[in-house]
Fold N-(5'-phosphoribosyl)anthranilate isomerase.
Amino acid sequence: MTHVKVCGIREYEHAIAAADAGVDALGFVFAESKRKVSLKQAQSISKRLPDHVKKIGVFVNASREELAESYEFAGLDFVQLHGNESPLFCEQLNLPFIKAFRIKGEDDIDRIKEFENASYYLLDSASGPYQGGNGTQFNWEFLNEKEVDHNKLILAGGLNQDNLQKAIEIVQPTMVDVSSGVETNGIKDIHKIKRFIGLAKQF
Ligand SMILES: O=C(O)c1ccccc1NCC(=O)[C@H](O)[C@H](O)COP(=O)(O)O
């Protein structure tokens, strides 16, 4: 069964609806974004959620100090790194981390090898103006010839209820990540969240 992460959570009612529908992880964006939350907002949501739902903080080129403080303050289980964080920076972090990769071509997938101590690798699209959450898809076929540990693979980028089944069949990730695909007019939509989670759990 494929695990599900819903990213860009800003409201408790969306978080608890996702938790009740069986979500495995929720993402709080601390980087510059229309989905940005404060540490206090994230903490207030995070502490009311069940322990089995993993809380993930999303960052772009944050300092070690910011990552460590945010991890503690907001009760995070992982930090998710969407910037140019180097393998050395990640190795010395001493926090459970997910490294995000923006995939333009097959070669971008080879960079995963440099981050062996990542808990997960999140593959996202490179198209769109932001470092993540663009609602755009990359070519999943790029993974075809690659030796990647699928138990550590999170697929992101433009997923929605219409392309989810095909995405899971082609990529076989351990987890799928969605943000734009469960929004209506830029706001999380509880019906879409529930439908997406229910669908992912069938595969
Ligand atoms: O969601 C954002 O606004 C964001 C901004 C800056 C860095 C990362 C961001 N999101 C990270 C995620 O994990 C998203 O869920 C992922 O990029 C997929 O988003 P989408 O294509 O909208 O489903």
